[in-house]
Amino acid sequence: MTQKLWDDVDEYIEKVIVNEDSALTDAIRDSRNSGLPEINVTAPQGKMLHILAKSVAAKKILEMGTLGAYSTIWLARSLPEDGKLISLELQEKHARVATKNLERAGLSSKVNIILGPALESLAKLQEGNEGPFDFIFIDADKGNYPDYFRHALKLSHSGTLIVIDNVVRNGTIIDTTNRDQNADGVVRMYELFKELKGFTATTIQTVGKKGYDGFSLVLVL
Ligand code: SAH
Ligand code: DHB
Ligand code: MG
Q: Separation of 170 CA from ligand 2 center, angstroms?
């Protein structure tokens, strides 16, 4: 089985099942034209995030890693009228493109992008008692995943669903000899899955336009 087949099947799923609208395709187009890295979740994955957030009836969502707000749009669209989403982003340019994409999607009033290193923003969210969140999506720099996961637990309540992207990394997570910094961050987060209590977790491997990777699902008990 090849990347070409995974791409073709993703395109089939997009056409037959997902049906992105113009706000989503415009967000992708503007992100590309602005030179942002093309590492957003795929359309089927975005819709999965939307469905998961809706399944827990999320009113408060936290996202780490905004990029051009593609995943943000999918998630914010799961919110009720009075729902809110906070998204954390390091790069000013990414936040600027994201802000425009959110405006076009009509979601500006529901979404707040906090610019800066996510670890600093997370500390401030805790100090300001901004939690708990009902749904948390972790998708920023992978080396900090252990700390992001600890913060996510602190900003959760019983029933919070935490979803984490890029947790298989082409299978390199089981390579003990030459893991890169990203895979290493994921594995150190998995060590916390063993060490910490109060949640139940799994990881699902995925293939598609983003190659071979996976998502972790963590339900806070
Ligand atoms: N969730 C997005 C993709 C995020 S890509 C989507 O699926 O559409 C990862 C993002 O995390 C990038 O925009 C990157 O700038 C941001 N990032 C990297 N390091 C960060 C940090 N320390 N704090 C906050 N954001 C960071
Ligand atoms: C990278 C980051 C992501 O969030 C992703 O989904 C894929 C790749 C990266 O930094 O390479
Ligand atoms: Mg990702």
A: 12
pLDDT tens-digit profile, the chain (221 residues): 799 999 999 999 999 999 999 999 999 999 999 999 999 999 999 999 999 999 999 999 999 999 999 999 999 999 999 999 999 999 999 999 999 999 999 999 999 999 999 999 999 999 999 999 999 999 999 999 999 999 999 999 999 999 999 999 999 999 988 889 999 999 999 999 999 999 999 999 999 999 999 999 999 99
The residue whose CA has the least distance to atom 8 of ligand 1 is 40
140 lines ligand 1 (CB under 6 A): yes
Quote the tokens at residue 170.
């082409």
Q: Is 117 in the pocket of ligand 1 (CB under 6 A)?
A: yes
Name all contacts of 12-18 with Cβ < 8 Å and 24+ positions apart. 13/43, 13/44, 14/42, 14/43, 14/44, 17/44, 17/47, 18/43, 18/44, 18/46, 18/47
Nearest atom in ligand 2 to 166's CA: 6
